[in-house]
């Protein structure tokens, strides 16, 4: 069974917490977890299936660890790799920039050959604009998490999305192998 590399950046711990919750649902035996503050291009290159977690800061800014690693990401060949994205943002406080960092990361890795899975509906979110929204499709480029305004919806969203990507990544056992939690 090939493992999934889950890479995240987190300043205040929310993105790290979501990454840990994803790993628990998909199975710790399936997912290797990495903080982008401590990785190299080679560690990402070792995985065919990847999950990237990135929060958006303030007015559409990239989280600091991702920002420091950004030029490295632009050099990685993602051809033959499948990537699922999750982003954190505040849709009310920063509704004009909701999940922009996820959209920017998506554009970089798709431009380098990545296939994307884990698209997520925009239904149930209230925001003005987002670089992570796929125009005209009613979808985000990955899972949208708002721990500031909709924390009570995070558990259900994680349960559903993890089942979705288990099927899309063709994990052994598919969605049936994903642990649903009430965390």
From TrEMBL:
Which residue numbers delimit the Flavodoxin-like domain? 4-166
Q: Which Gene3D superfamilies match?
A: 3.40.50.360
Q: Which family does it belong to?
A: Belongs to the flavodoxin family.
Cofactor needs: FMN
- Function statement: Low-potential electron donor to a number of redox enzymes.
What name appears for this protein in its UniProt entry? Flavodoxin
Lineage top rank: taxon: Bacteria
**Signal peptide start-end:** none
Q: What is the lineage of its organism?
A: Bacteria, Pseudomonadati, Pseudomonadota, Gammaproteobacteria, Cellvibrionales
Tell me any Pfam family this protein matches.
Flavodoxin_1
Kindly indicate whether the keyword Ribosomal protein belongs to this entry: no
Source organism of the structure: Microbulbifer echini
- Keyword terms, alphabetized: Electron transport, Flavoprotein, FMN, Transport
* Keyword match Flavoprotein: yes
